[in-house]
DNA sequence: TTCATGTCGATTGTCGACAATACACATTTT
DNA sequence: AAAATGTGTATTGTCGACAATCGACATGAA
């Protein structure tokens, strides 16, 4: 049997959600845009039922807002959203990092280290976009290792909204070296079995909280 | 115009989600039960579309699990779920309490104090169920005052799953006085403008974390 | 017995059609 | 002119029907 070609006869709902998610994240569909069921119906050549259910799925991920009897709109990420997210993301990623450190198996650490190597390559080549991508994967992998599914779910929602925020890349544009150095230190901590788990938690939480002021500054300066 | 009769021509989806939520929380529908679209269709006298969308809504709230092409089932809350929730709930409610304290207006404090009075009455009358109910409202109100909508959303999801866990009431059965005393202290802190916000955060976080061991003990002893 | 295969009923996935509603614009009223 | 009212069209909410699929049971083979 041919096993390298992944089976993908998943339901229409998943395919549509995925397509829309990508379109929103890469800017094809802009924030505030209205998603009209009948338009997408033509575009995809399906009926409205799976589209409506895909909307609910996107809503769960925090990518769209559903206004009953009015329509579905791509969420506008505001400065206030970002401000609300930071303290939550900081403590939760901190906890996730500690749990990950406590529960990590060798194979899992290896995988993260591989991602780190990609970050390194991107950083050396000054490849902002690549760095941004692998940086995101790095955190995703760390969060996964925490094996706390509720934490994984919540952080996924918060982080996907972060991705919508294009300004994010500006942060790494200016301080790519700083960010890289920070993650290098993080990896050193993770590899040393003698590290105090609470220190890992603090380190990650602080790393995120420290990014906040500059992040918000970029919002004010560069957007609009 | 007659205004005391609340308008309720909300969509079918909301009505159905609400009905199902209550049925799940009060035990009419038990955990693990399968929710069959065609059955509910007869029960409510509506088509399957709003029912399917209501399922997605319940799924977002963490009350059901949707298995594609198989069916929708009421979530089974396991010991592991509770263990995953505690650290998250503790830090987030802590943050919520601090923010609430920092942003609280007089009217809002009054409302919380009224709820506390109901808790007091229930505690004095040894009315477990009533105490449990107002205790939940107390925390809800405090969380609302934090005005961090993301925090409010996440905590709502976590807390509703907690409600599904019937053992919860056992906790208060044994230690209703202790719980009451704790919330009395909390209210004192909230009323004193000189309290350090960080202390409010610690107090609430510790209060939740302290409950964990006994909570888990009840699970092991009394369930099944 | 134990495992593989076939068949059937119940249930979910998807569709196209109709009903209800919201918004934009035109018309009337003050 | 400004506000209130009427009308039309685009869009969402709901429905009933059909197609695809799953799981239980029956049948047959090792």
Task: Please explain how this structure is put together.
- Two copies of one chain form a homodimer.
- Chain A is mostly helical and 224 residues long.
- Chain A has two domains: 12-74, Winged helix-like DNA-binding domain superfamily/Winged helix DNA-binding domain (Arc Repressor Mutant, subunit A, Orthogonal Bundle), CATH 1.10.10.10; 79-222, Up-down Bundle (Four Helix Bundle (Hemerythrin (Met), subunit A)).
- Helix content of chain A is 73%, strand content 4%.
- Chain A is built from nine helices and three strands; from the N terminus they run αβααββαααααα.
- Chain A has helices at residues 12-25, 37-44, 48-60, 79-103, 106-124, 128-145, 149-164, 168-191, 197-222; strands at residues 34-35, 64-67, 71-74.
- A three-stranded antiparallel sheet of chain A has the order 1-3-2.
- In chain A, a hairpin with a 3-residue loop joins strand 2 (64-67) and strand 3.
- Mean pLDDT of chain A is 90; it is low at 1-6.
- Chain A binds a DNA duplex (30 and 30 nucleotides) through helix 3.
